[in-house]
Amino acid sequence: MLELRADCARCTGLCCVGPALTRSADFAIDKPAGEPCPNLRDDFRCGIHTELRPRGFPGCTVYDCFGAGQQVVQVTFGGAMWRSSASARAEQLAAFAVLRPLHELLWHLDAARGIAAAARLRPALDEQAARAERLAGAPAADLATVDIAALRADADVLLREASRLARAGTPGRDLRGADLMGRKLRGADLTGADLRGATLDRADVIGADLRAADVRGADLSGALFLTQPQANAAIGDATTLLPSGLDRPPHWTA
């Protein structure tokens, strides 16, 4: 079974190298894709990790690789360091760009397999997950040929049906993929809504943008497909309830 939680101690800061940064409310600097962030230390740790938000890097606190980082470093490349050469860097970043969305897809498939109302889909979900896991363990050369968009499209048929079965009989609205940036959800009753990324009972939140969504006091424990990055992006507090398997973001208020 693949690890779907980030273990930075077993990675080499790939998320601090691969993505481009644009000076904005999320990042204090511009950085081209493929270049190490100036805050990345020689030991592959962030030099300002405990001060990311006050130093202008809240976007970094939202990010999560779903365990793709350690998979690339420890499995795909057997512990090899990207700093050894320009070609090593390019190869590892290319693998990371495939494995990160692949691991996220596996997270969603695993969540769907845990929906009791969707039990009849379990064989098909298991098959999709096994296929994705085989690809995740493939050599770097094979990863380069993976069509992530096609995999997502195939899996999405099952995920939507699992969501429908979970929400059967509820009056919720379908907000899958909704942009909830800045929306305050405190006290809102959105039970059964399809929110992909939101945090409500039987709310499907795949693809929902929760940046700055106010979920203080909200019950997200029954949300369908909620991920750690989505929780990290929201504004919560000690009374916000999360699904099992997710960590309470350290920047949430007490």
TrEMBL record:
What organism does this protein naturally occur in? Jiangella alba
Q: Which PANTHER family match?
A: BTB_POZ DOMAIN-CONTAINING PROTEIN KCTD9
InterPro entries associated with the record? 5peptide_repeat, Pentapeptide-BTB/POZ_domain
> What domain of life does the UniProt record list for this protein's source?
Bacteria
Q: What is this protein called?
A: Uncharacterized protein YjbI, contains pentapeptide repeats
Query: One Pfam family for this entry, by name?
Result: Pentapeptide
